[in-house]
Amino acid sequence: MTSLMRALALSVGQLGDPAILRVLGKTALISLGIFAGLGVGLYFLLEAALERYAGGDPQGFGALLAAAGMLVAAWLLFRVVALFVLQFFADEVVEAVESRHYPHAAASLRRLPLREELANSLRSLGRTVGFNLLALPLAAALLVTGIGTALVFWTVNALLLGRELQDMVWLRHRRNADEIAPIGALTRFALGGIVAAMLLVPFVNLLAPVLGAASATHLVHRGRTERLHA
């Protein structure tokens, strides 16, 4: 756990790095742009539905419903969209961290082709949707507890996020498909849990994916070093 706290501290300390700032700007703008586009589409859809089925001029009621719907969607789906977008810029985060802290690792970095990046993103999206749907009955049953539902979804997404953040780095450095990632399951879960919690906080959620990827980079390289010297 100490190594995770150290990785997070180093990642926060590198937020001012121009390379990291560029990724932050791109991922934030694209993620927000996706939600803005969805919001506009939802607005026109609701306005047309209200005009057709309610009769008369909806008088902007569709805009109100669309805004409310997008706030809910952003809270529920921001993690999915942000991680999907970050997949395409993960190389830049990994390279920025490695150039400052692990320059010897650059030789083993493998750039993933766009097709592989897209496949990884779609697999991640599928896992996220699938496992959250599987957790839904248990989460619904725990609604009466007040906090049980939130804990179920946090646990599921901590597991998923830890795996995704690890893979963003590890897939670029492993020597073969059978090589095991050098991050322990507990550390991976803790990293995912911290990032999952950050994604629920407005504005902090814009930083969370990049901080998670940078922290995973530290954990992978420190883990590899410890494995070599074990």
TrEMBL record:
The chain crosses the membrane at residues 28-50, 62-90, 134-160. The keyword Glycoprotein does not apply. This is EI24 domain-containing protein. It is a multi-pass membrane protein. It is found in: Membrane. InterPro entries: CysZ/EI24. It comes from Qipengyuania soli. Keywords: Membrane, Transmembrane, Transmembrane helix. The lineage of its organism: Bacteria, Pseudomonadati, Pseudomonadota, Alphaproteobacteria, Sphingomonadales.
